[in-house]
Write a structure and sequence with these properties.
single chain; 399 residues; alpha/beta; Molybdenum Cofactor Biosythetic Enzyme, Chain A; Molybdopterin biosynthesis moea protein, domain 2; Molybdopterin biosynthesis moeA protein, domain 3; 4 domains; 7-stranded mixed sheet; 6-stranded mixed sheet; 17% helix; elongated
Amino acid sequence: MANPDPLRDASSEDARQAMLAFAPRILAREWVPLGGACGRVLATALVAGGDQPPFDAASMDGFAFAACGREQRLTLVGESRAGRPFERAVARGEAVYISTGAVIPRGADTVLPHEVAVIEGETLIGDSPTGAHVRRAGYDFARGAVLLSASHRLRPFDLALAAAVGADRLSVLAKPRVALIACGDELARPGAPLASGQIHESISASLAALVSHWGGRVTLSVLLPDARDALAHAIAEARRDADLAVVIGGASVGAHDYARDALGRDARLIVEKIAMRPGRPTWFGVGASAPVLGLPGNPVSALVAGMLFLRPLLGAMLGLPPSLHYRSAKLSEPLAANGDREHFMRARYVGEVVAALSDQDSSLLTALRDSDCLIRRAARAVAAQSGAEVEILLLEASC
């Protein structure tokens, strides 16, 4: 059966779904210390090995005793401190001073807060409803509870939960290995002197930071001239050694744009180009080894396309749910009707109001710097007035 033709001028959503269907799942696992686990994806569920708290505990500083439903005169016989429990049972008519988090002694069932207690010498006068200010064993979670499921991406708060069950390391999925291959005769590495007609290559550093932020790791980053054989060799090596190869540049229709042709005989194009701006030359190919995502050489186009396609691909490789979350915002200024391609407009979002930047030229890195979101304008969208609702996608705010 012949391979189907690649998608040409597909919508961004159709192109994304076509790519995600070929995202390889990461199966390799590794153990990492708790302090280095933030942002990683759990390979196995975190299950409570015991109750939390493991004993009935006081929720306030005060006095522990057995409630009887009326005011009592109780003899103070000792203290239950956090980490140093009162060793014997508390008899009727007795009370012990107790600190927050300390074990409720045997025979006691209630805590009277310190600030409302009446003390006369060694006698406590008062009462409290049965069970007041006591955290029962298992109040937070019980033995056997699934606290975090497999395929959960760990947040800082989750590490406290893992530590609470006694875990000092966690089993997580290996980070997807990403190879970055930038190409272009006009490009020089940052720090290198510029020859006539050259500019510094500005995409790889930003893309590598985003890959790390999205849960992957860059294992190769090379800069090549516009040479078909060199590019084909680099792509073949990257596909063999990485989980995903990303080719930056060489994707347009110029005489020296070789990226698609260098994909390899064992591979085929799934997406040839996308009906969007910026980023129309974005492409995607698959074969027997790692898939290849091709990004435009224009820096803004490449980074916008990275948000729309590379981020979901890395998420799918780690078994995470779709990572593009559009939200609604109201325009502070009108927008003209859109053309035949989806337009992802650089914009500023303040409160619930969004404003597109005045200059949407895709060469402007300063415009990307000044943006915190993208307005998604559908193909052939009609003009929108101030106050109209539009879809926006928040940009990454930090490394």
